Request: fold
Amino acid sequence: MNDLIQDMRTAIEKELQKQAARLDSPHSAPFHEMLTYHLGWTGTGAGPQATGKRIRPTLTLLCAAACGADWEPVLPAAAAIELVHNFSLVHDDIQDNSDMRRGRLTVWKIWGQPMAINVGDTLFSMANQAILDLAGAFPADHVIDAARTLHDTCLELTRGQFMDMSFEERTDVRLEEYWLMITGKTAALLSCCCSIGALLGGADEAARDAYRAFGHYLGLAFQAQDDILGIWGDEAQTGKSAASDLVEGKKSLPILYGLKQDGAFKKRWQAGPVKAEEVPGLAAQLAREGAHEYTQKAADQLTEQAQQSLRLAAPQGAAGDYLEKLASKLLRRET
Amino acid sequence: MNDLIQDMRTAIEKELQKQAARLDSPHSAPFHEMLTYHLGWTGTGAGPQATGKRIRPTLTLLCAAACGADWEPVLPAAAAIELVHNFSLVHDDIQDNSDMRRGRLTVWKIWGQPMAINVGDTLFSMANQAILDLAGAFPADHVIDAARTLHDTCLELTRGQFMDMSFEERTDVRLEEYWLMITGKTAALLSCCCSIGALLGGADEAARDAYRAFGHYLGLAFQAQDDILGIWGDEAQTGKSAASDLVEGKKSLPILYGLKQDGAFKKRWQAGPVKAEEVPGLAAQLAREGAHEYTQKAADQLTEQAQQSLRLAAPQGAAGDYLEKLASKLLRRET
Reply:
């Protein structure tokens, strides 16, 4: 990892710790611990593996730097976005009934659902506080613009989450709805990173739009790629057991495409839960019906759109180079 | 109800509907319905009984008006506070496993916990958006100040919620911790109403501090009064079955006082769950040990402090009069 990215990651961790310290008082010590556990700093398995990759705050800082601005003053916004991401993960794990996150027990699994709901709410509150820490370093109008962008994104996140949960119950989900769902659930926050980074980096409206579009397409492409890995990926690459989407009955893009084909895949899918031993055969059947090719083509097109948007944004200097690298690493799931 | 309060309530409802409309799109119609149900506008039992009393937004507008300012431009802040209150109620109902709220089934009881967590998150996001709608009508610095006050309050709320939940597991809760808990859980948001109302009403720092203190003491006094009703109140007054705090094992102020006395009450309390038929006898025992008198004295003192703070704030005109009336009604639980 190069020096700029390493400097950014160190500074992000420091800023996150500063933000989380708002809760560090004698009467809330066990509460503060739940937060620092989730953020990867304390408890069993603490360390770089447990913090996650901090992709969103790094992206935010890179966009600002690629506009030719100093990235340090942007840190409160980067931290705010990472806190929003983590609030959504804590609530997501309850909603999905997930026991593990980044190789460790989830917050609700350790402290129970009521406490975990509150931990998520706290991370959300801290994100709202963090974004306003931009005041002083930036004109008040820009602070309000950045905060509004963040809050609008949070509404998109909850809308995406609603659609995702409602898909579980439904048998009539259309491909068009899938795209709307991941626009909210995945693309909105990446788009927010780029939009806020560009705003605070001093980009004009056209460049900011291009950065925003870059984040949007990056998010969609990433999700389509992730959906492929969820069926045809191997465990080493994804960190979770391969083909789990088939077993979990998750309505991902290849599966919705397969259902639309109305063939052997659909017939088996509708017959009831898929067992682990059926996965290789069913994944191969889904590929024969064109779902792998369709999803890969969508991912490639979206990647191309992300790259075009980035060229339009014309990122500068070393940060610009790293931005391109980060994007291609992200899309190949190497970072 | 007089004209000013009626005008405010009508305008608050309209502003809340405007804020909630952010989610009103074809793909999220069933989701929007969960929100409008909780806010009391749709579904079984919809109407004034289901909306709640909108005490917090009314208090916000009254404080601004009592500073001599127009209250209409303050509406987005009033709506933001009411949305925060409602977000906390939706999550609270899950955390407390409560089936009913304002005489209707709770959101999680109808749509399940995962959806209800998301409904709370959405109301929270909308609150954050609403407060920024002050921009344009107020200087950007004041908008940031108001938003920061709201977000700091949300962190206090989550800290109070943590303490409240941790009390359930603990047998060593001290009276001092009780006051800290209700400062976060009840007083912080009422204090926030008054602080933001005064800020936007153009109060100077000293007056704003007085308004903030008024809300703080009002919240503490209200909670102490509520704790009395939770043991010695009757169902008609509280809307819930009397003495439920004894049955629910809730560590309210009179109960913590009783446990400190180390007498017959404590002995019975520690022996296991209290049955409904034991309530009259145990409530009388708790009163004999001085818990009713202690709590009533605390409530009276806090009420006096609230009234003193309000006098210091020197509220003006009709709004000032209504502010005093609202406070005394609230403390006698008549409104």
The mean pLDDT of chain B is 94. Residues 140-169 of chain B form the longest helix (30 residues). Chain B touches chain A through 48 residues (CB under 8 Å).
